[in-house]
Design goal:
InterPro entries: EmrE-like. The chain crosses the membrane at residues 6-25, 32-53, 59-79, 91-110, 116-133, 140-160, 172-191, 211-228, 234-254, 270-288. The radius of gyration is 18 Å and the shape is globular. It has helices spanning 2-25, 32-42, 59-85, 88-111, 117-134, 141-163, 167-184, 189-201, 204-230, 233-238, 240-254, 267-288. It is mainly α.
Length: 290
């Protein structure tokens, strides 16, 4: 059950990273495209893994790895767009649940994982939950949908690379896909301009916070990847409900302490969010108990 504890720890760290993301993205000079680009660039640090057993499998394996990393880049891009627009609890929950739903769908299509009747009932509960939560924040459905689809594709292809090689190899080549996709965005003049403006106009303290935050997020994702390698990719995804709780609690604690972190706690809205989380939790519980 080591993978279970690793997954919970990963989601707790990711919740902390989300709160800091909201703080950084609240600054008018930092746009989601430049934020996603610099996150991708940090993944180049995985080059240090080369002496520890990284090897070339074949070109098809490379393409799948690159696709996983590229999908992850787009998942981050649309996630950051959603985070910038609305409450962090709303954005992270919508994207997270849609990511789980599409992970299940793509697992059935690509990995040939079983997709039983109770799974459908559980997913209905989860959809009902995010529809409720969606009523409490600004409309970020397009961004959440795009991010959820991309996260689903990335996660399932990541699991495929683990199944056809070892953990270190899969992790390295998918990170190279993320770096490669980040570099490709420089082809577009607008994106290229945004990258250099963000580098020029962002303060040193913000860069330091960004770096520390991405280290936290990197540790979280590394733990998550290990849990995916050790456990079932769909079951690991269902544990995402813990992350929603962590994010919501942190947002409530820091809503008036950290600039940009605001959480609507109007009585009716708070009740709707609570009911939405309960429905999502029931869906996760149904999936987890199978």
């Amino acid at each position: 059950m080591l993978w279970l504890y690793l997954a919970i720890a990963a989601y707790a760290l990711n919740a902390v990273a989300f709160i800091i993301d909201k703080y950084l993205l609240s600054a008018p000079i930092l746009r989601p495209i430049s934020y996603a680009f610099w996150v991708g660039m940090l993944s180049f640090a995985s080059i240090v893994l080369l002496p520890f057993g990284v090897y070339w499998v074949n070109f098809f394996y490379f393409l799948i790895s690159f696709a996983s990393g590229a999908a992850f880049f787009f998942a981050l891009l649309f996630l950051y767009k959603a985070i910038k627009k609305t409450d962090i609890s709303v954005a992270s929950t919508k994207v997270g649940v849609l990511g789980v739903i599409f992970t299940y769908i793509f697992s059935a299509l690509i990995l040939r994982s079983s997709f039983l009747g109770p799974d459908i009932v559980a997913l209905v509960f989860m959809v009902a939950g995010i529809l409720l939560i969606g009523k409490t924040g600004k409309g970020v459905w397009p961004e959440a949908l795009m991010s959820g689809v991309a996260f689903g594709v990335s996660t399932v292809l990541l699991k495929w690379t683990f199944n056809h090689s070892d953990f270190l190899n899969g992790f390295f080549w998918t990170r190279m896909g993320l770096v490669g996709m980040a570099f490709l965005t420089l082809i577009h003049p607008f994106a290229r301009k945004e990258m250099f403006l963000s580098l020029k106009n962002t303060s040193r303290s913000s860069r330091s916070v960004f770096l520390v935050n991405k280290i936290i997020a990197g540790i979280g994702f590394l733990l998550l990847y290990i849990s995916i390698k050790l456990g079932n990719v769909s079951v690991v995804s269902t544990l995402l409900s813990a992350q929603f709780v962590f994010v919501f609690i942190l947002a409530l604690i820091f809503r008036q302490r950290i600039p940009g972190v605001s959480e609507n706690i109007n009585g009716k809205i708070l009740l709707v969010k609570f009911l939405g989380v309960v429905l999502i939790g029931l869906g996760f519980l149904m999936l987890f108990k199978q």
